[in-house]
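I have been asked to look over a protein record a colleague put together. The record follows directly below this note.
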Amino acid sequence: MEIVTVTDGAEQFTCNAYLVLGERNVLVDAGTMPGVEDVVAEHTDALDAVVLTHQHTDHVGELDAVLDAFDADLYAYADHPRRTGELEDGDELRMGDETFEVVYTPGHASDHVSLVGETRVFSGDVVVHDDGAFDDGSFGRTDMPGQSRERLVESLRTLLRRMPDTVAELYAGHGDVFRSDPDGDSVRDVIERALSRAERREPKYPDD
């Protein structure tokens, strides 16, 4: 199974959009990079589905362009005019060559989900490895309307409970992909560190 960050090198603010290639070609989030559909087309002629971790603008800005270019299903937790499949906590999705469980992880967004497989997790913005605020375990901001630090903290705990110990790769909505180091941090270490920081209830960006 191959995973390509199709927004890599974007000149404008965007989330990481991941193209998961294999038995079932799936795009996780669409980002805001103009021409992202062309990058997808460089890797595959057929896109089976787009799966949204949540519907913040930086994750859906180029969604229509992708859906117009490919006859793909759209899976999302919250309603969307082009949604063909509703995501619910506990659902299973085939992406690439693996099956992923949908885990509802609100706090950064009320419709946020993470996608948990045996070896990989797509965490959206609930947890990232490095994002400019923290470099070895961070979490999505919770200081905007409709966000909640308390719910995010519980979501991180839920993710830790439901994530197998075999998960070794973290594909987050921002920052770099994190891969476990046999002699260093694991994905679980990164999430536990993010949880500890989130539990302190300190502002993520103190200067804002």
Notes: The CA atoms of residues 56 and 109 lie 8 Å apart.
